[in-house]
Amino acid sequence: MAENLPSGLALVLCLFATAVFYIGCPNQQWFAKRYLTFLPSLLISLVLSLLAWWLLLNVMSGLSGVFTVLSLEMLFLGLIPFMPKYEKPLANTSKAKSSLVRGDSYANHQTQWLLKTIGMFLIGFPFAVFTSSLIGWMAPDSVPSDIRSQYIMWLIVPLWLTPLSLIFFSRRPLSVFIAFVTLTCVAFGLLQIIKFGG
Known about the structure:
It is built from 6 helices and no strands. The protein is an all-alpha fold and 198 residues long. The protein has 2 domains: 1-84, no CATH class; 109-198, no CATH class.
């Protein structure tokens, strides 16, 4: 029973980290007004995620903890916006009005879902490959190379889907694109330094 406590606490911390991040996003639909701006919510979310990872170190390796935290938060990020929508079943779904709260800018807002999806799909893949390679390189030497390569391979999926999800939480998708292009270039540069620098 005592072995399950860190895992359970880590799960709760991941849920809270995702909820706090969502509350700070400009397109959140839980509250009529935002109680947190994006930067404080991001910092709080990162601290909670690090605490969850630290708790998971009691039951798994550091690399497995990173994969678990990323996968949990990716899952919660997909589910958490809908949590308050299902408090009670609707009596008649065909006549039910939408409870979605729209901002003032929604009237002249163009969604551009297709451009956002394709753009972040293309940018997210090299970001995921280079970042997972960096994380795999930081693994201890005691980890066998076949396990390390499997870890790198499986880590690509949450790292690829995370930016693909995040693009829809921003009112300024261009800044998200620029941030991930910059992070991709930094990760690629670090890999080149590792490769040629020894």
